[in-house]
């Protein structure tokens, strides 16, 4: 199960990404927002971050105007590796090197076709493991040390 959310600045792109996920047969739960009224991105980013952190969702996608706010919020949760990507290469590396479990996009800075390519690359890329796993283990140890687990 995937979860997805946006603020008003990411609503239009979120709807397009939902279509892509549906085309791929990926079950997704939309956690809002569902209209263009101004909302606060932390209210939606925390929902996705919490669900992925607790394991009730496998992966998540967040969209706000730039993606910056949502990535800050989501990364407050233990076990979350939310990656803000601005192009296909970054989306690919987010998975291959960092095993990002939340992809964050900027609805006001990305064209829909590029964003679709980015999500597809993130979905299709495998985590490389190896030395990259060692780095994720260090992040997990830091979370433990800081009592974030």
Question: Can you walk me through this structure?
Answer:
By secondary structure, this protein is of the alpha/beta class. It has a single domain, classed as Ribose 5-phosphate Isomerase B, Chain: A, CATH 3.40.1400.10. 48% of the residues lie in helices and 15% in strands. The chain is built from six helices and five strands, in the order E-H-E-H-E-H-E-H-E-H-H. It has helices at residues 11-23, 41-54, 68-74, 88-96, 112-124, 131-145; strands at 2-6, 28-30, 59-64, 82-84, 102-106. Helix 1 links the parallel strand 1 and strand 2 (28-30). Helix 1 (11-23) crosses helix 5 and helix 2 crosses helix 3. The mean pLDDT is 97.
Q: Give the number of domains.
A: 1
Q: What order do the SSEs take from the amino end to the carboxyl end, as H and E? A: EHEHEHEHEHH
Q: Approximately how much beta-strand content do the residues carry?
A: 5-15%
In CATH terms, what is the fold-level topology?
A: Ribose 5-phosphate Isomerase B, Chain: A
Largest sheet: 5 strands, parallel
CATH class: Alpha Beta
Distance between the termini: 22 Å
Order of strands, main sheet, comes to 2-1-3-5-4
Could you name the key traits of this structure?
149 residues; alpha/beta; Ribose 5-phosphate Isomerase B, Chain: A; 6 helices
How are the secondary structure elements laid out?
Elements: E1 2-6, H1 11-23, E2 28-30, H2 41-54, E3 59-64, H3 68-74, E4 82-84, H4 88-96, E5 102-106, H5 112-124, H6 131-145
Parallel strand pairs: 1-2, 1-3, 3-5, 4-5
Helix pairs in contact: 1-5, 2-3, 4-5
